[in-house]
Amino acid sequence: MLTFLMLTAFSVLTSLTGGMPAPLLTRWLVLKGGSLQVIGSTNINKFTCSINGYSNADTITVYKNTGDNESVPLKGILNLDVSLFDCRNPVMTGDLRKTLKSKEYPRLKIKFLNLNKFPDLGSQTDYITGNVDIELAGVIKRFEVNYKFYRDREKTIHLIGERDVNFSDFNLTPPRKLGGMIKTDNKLKVQFELGMKSL
């Protein structure tokens, strides 16, 4: 009778959780000092705007692949303060923050979903891809990101991600100045770099 009750409870728990959770592979602690930058251009020049010194003590959890899909599931979110964007030009900085609706939507979020394989941290550099959800100005979009992984002599894991996005992906209009004479291109290159330690 006890065995029957235990099996029944396990069955109910499994149905509620959507199946067995993937076994844990490792956890990466995100170290202070990470950065994110967006690189864009106007009809007259290029610009770079950055958020430097990311300081949240976030953790990215990596799970073992248990199915036929070769991807490695991830769990972790970066929360970035949009008002910290700095374009090294006060007018441009203000224009970008206004365009990104920083007062209404103060956070840019990057949610890690998976990697196409577990990085080879024993090699000099490993290039892989993965999917993320980016939330900006109240809109969530899924993107495939190109990653570069490497581990330095202090065993710090460096993750560098890169992806092109458009203002229009998030229902945003690129900023313009001087009656429309200066026009910002729709496309932006987003790059972020994190230092991590295995837990």
H and E order? HEEEEEHEEEEEEE
Please count the beta strands (DSSP E, at least 2 residues each).
12
Give the termini separation: 41 Å
Shape: elongated
| Overall average residue pLDDT | 87
Biggest sheet character = 8 strands, antiparallel, barrel
The percentage helix is 10-25%
Give the number of helices. 2
The CATH topology assignment is: Lipocalin
Q: Helix/strand-derived class?
A: mainly beta
Using the 3D structure, state the CATH architecture: Beta Barrel
Instruction: Quickly count the domains.
Output: 1
Q: What's the Cα radius of gyration?
A: 20 Å
* Sheet with the most strands: spatial strand order: 1-4-5-6-7-8-9-12
- What is the CATH top level name? Mainly Beta
> What portion of residues belong to β-strands?
over 45%
- The CATH H-level superfamily is Lipid/polyisoprenoid-binding, YceI-like
Description:
With 199 residues, the protein is mainly β. It has a single domain (22-198), classed as Lipid/polyisoprenoid-binding, YceI-like (Lipocalin), CATH 2.40.128.110. 13% of the residues lie in helices and 49% in strands. The chain has two helices and twelve strands. The chain has helices at residues 2-17, 90-99; strands spanning 24-30, 34-41, 46-54, 59-63, 72-81, 107-115, 126-136, 139-151, 157-166, 176-177, 182-183, 187-198. The strands form two sheets. It has an eight-stranded antiparallel beta barrel. Strands 10-11 form a two-stranded antiparallel sheet. 20% of the residues are buried. The model is unreliable at 1-19 (pLDDT under 50).
How is this structure best summarized?
This protein is mostly beta strands and 199 residues long. It has helices at 2-17, 90-99; strands at 24-30, 34-41, 46-54, 59-63, 72-81, 107-115, 126-136, 139-151, 157-166, 176-177, 182-183, 187-198. The chain has a single domain (22-198), classed as Lipocalin, CATH 2.40.128.110.
